[in-house]
Amino acid sequence: MLGHRPEFGPGRIIERCGRLHVDLDTSLQVLVIQAIGLGHRADDPEPVLLVQYLERIDKQIAILKKVKGSVKIPVSVKLSPFYANPLNIVSQMDQLGVKGFVLFNRLFQPDIDIKKEAHYTPLNASNREDNKLSLRFAGLLYGSVTGSICSSTGIHTGEDVVKMILAGADCVQIVSTVYKNKIEYISTIIEDIQSWMKSKNYSKLADFRGKLSNKNLNDPFVYKRAQYIDLLLNSDQIFKKYPTV
Ligand SMILES: Cc1cc2nc3c(=O)[nH]c(=O)nc-3n(C[C@H](O)[C@H](O)[C@H](O)COP(=O)(O)O)c2cc1C
Question: Which atom of ligand 1 is nearest to the CA of 102?
């Protein structure tokens, strides 16, 4: 779908600077920029300090401006989950006219084999539990940005797609589930979405997109960390009020 690393697809890095990779996928007619947030990379010899981090965000915005000024095709940004304030970054990029935000990228992480006492890099496929972050930010951003929201990470089933659209996503990006269940599984996902829509009498995605977004809720704390305080204050009720699944 959106974005390819050179080693995985036809895209190529046309610029690499300040933790922002630009992949040009010529087959898709859309420019997808991968903005790499806080986190250490092999090609970056220095540990990340806060000052550098702030400088890097400025650099990313500066590069984005340059890219936007240099190409005619739409520009989307695929964001790292490791920004301190993703809403602020998205808002800054939105003001520059970014057409879409893929939230979020899932970066390869090293693991350690304790028998061999050596590092290895697993495929790092996601699980369904990993989609809460994307869901939260789709819910927070719906109705607040002009660019489209593309939810990504941990979206494995039709049910997961429905959740993302209810939260406010315009579309989703799926990778791990296709690797695990093969390409045919996309038909199952679509059928499951259609059958859920039928059960709810919805005829199009717009009928329920953003229905459970922050904008459309009366409870301001659903998407915010303040509910954690409620959880601590009512710790005797935790397992009754907050399901553990
Ligand atoms: C094997 C594999 C290859 C990937 N290749 C790319 C890639 O070429 N470009 C890219 O932007 N993201 C790539 N990703 C990251 C995915 O696009 C996506 O952000 C991530 O896998 C989270 O989605 P998921 O939970 O559906 O897997 C890759 C992920 C995996 C597991």
Answer: 19
Measured from CB, residues less than 6 Å from any atom of ligand 1 are: 3-5, 8-9, 34, 78, 105-106, 123, 125-126, 152-155, 173-177, 179
Instruction: Please give the model's pTM, rounded to 2 decimal places.
Output: 0.80
Q: Is residue 245 part of a domain?
A: no
Gap between the Cα atoms of 209 and 142, Å rounded: 9
Give the CATH number, domain containing residue 186: 3.20.20.70
Question: pLDDT digit string (tens) for 120-137?
Answer: 888 889 999 999 999 999
Residue 75 has pLDDT above 50, yes or no: yes
Residue 200 burial (C-beta neighbours within 10 Å; 0-12, 13-18, 19+):
exposed
pLDDT of res. 123: 82
Encoding tokens for residue 224? 């915010």
Centroid of ligand 1 to alpha carbon of 105 (angstroms): 7
In the chain, the number of structural domains is 1
CA 175 to ligand 1 centroid distance, Å = 6
Q: Indicate the Cα dihedral angle 21, 26, 32, 36, nearest 10°.
A: -20
* Rg (the chain; Cα; Å): 19
